[in-house]
Write a structure and sequence with these properties.
Pfam families: PPIase_AIP. The chain is an all-alpha fold. It contains 10 helices and 2 strands. Helices cover 67% and strands 2% of the residues. Helix 4 runs antiparallel to helix 5 and helix 9 (190-203) packs antiparallel against helix 10 (208-237). The N and C termini lie far apart (74 Å).
Length: 239
């Protein structure tokens, strides 16, 4: 065993990774020794104590799984820019396959990883530049797939946020209007849902059967809700 002076910072990065965060979150671009002096607290009492009083450390490493050669996939944060671009279509395809298998949560995670790769690349471009727009147009279908998963997981407000952000940039995106309409309907934003479905029809009249089905479903739910409210209020006033 030996003193491992920089281990607290390494451990913090590993904990960030385990929590799905950027491993360098909260760190400045300076040397590791400067990082030690820069941070009054690492956010973990045990690491703070180890940073103040370095101790000889012994590491126990447990093998969790063994993967076949070529099957390992890097996390997006660890990839180079070129690796991110190459990984996106692969991750997208994996997400689609998981969705077809009914593994919606797992598919959403794949779409999220692909979006993260592209967003990381987009941050390096000037907003509105040709390269930025090209990346944004790759992000949009992935984000719509992600929203479809979130609809099925009944996470409607996330769908509203993402679809609105898409429509702020692409006012004629039919899929974004349709998914946002379904999310509005699910949270009883009736006027907003009707407006989004009307916009779908104005952009593509051939979708009338699909939109009509959604509107009939919304109307049926409204009638059911009205009936439940009448019974509830009747019981309240009869007490």
């Amino acid at each position: 065993p030996q003193h491992v002076v920089l281990y607290p910072l390494v451990s913090k990065s590993l904990r960030n990774i385990a929590a799905g965060k950027d491993p360098l979150e909260g760190q400045r671009h300076c040397c590791s020794i400067a990082q030690l002096h820069e941070h009054y607290s690492l956010g973990y009492p045990d690491l703070d104590e180890l940073q103040k009083n370095p101790q000889p450390l012994i590491f126990d490493i447990e093998v969790l799984k063994v993967e076949a050669p070529g099957s390992y996939q890097q996390d997006p944060w660890a990839m180079t820019d070129e690796e991110k671009l190459q990984a996106v279509p692969v991750i997208h395809k994996e997400g689609n396959e998981l969705y077809r298998q009914g593994k919606v949560q797992e598919a959403a995670a794949k779409y999220y990883d692909a979006i993260a790769c592209l967003k990381n690349l987009q941050m390096k471009e000037q907003p509105g530049s040709p390269d930025w727009i090209e990346l944004d147009q790759k992000i949009t279908p992935l984000l719509l797939n992600y929203c479809q998963c979130k609809l099925q997981c009944e996470e409607y407000y996330e769908v509203l946020d993402h679809c609105s952000s898409i429509l702020n940039k692409y006012e004629d995106n039919i899929k974004a209007y349709f998914k946002r309409g379904k999310a509005h309907a699910a949270v009883w934003n009736v006027a907003e849902a009707q407006a989004d479905f009307a916009k779908v029809l104005s952009l593509d009249p051939s979708l009338r059967p699909v939109v009509s089905k959604e509107l009939r479903s919304l109307e049926a739910r409204l009638r059911e809700k009205d009936a439940e409210d009448k019974i509830r209020f009747k019981d309240i006033f009869s007490q």
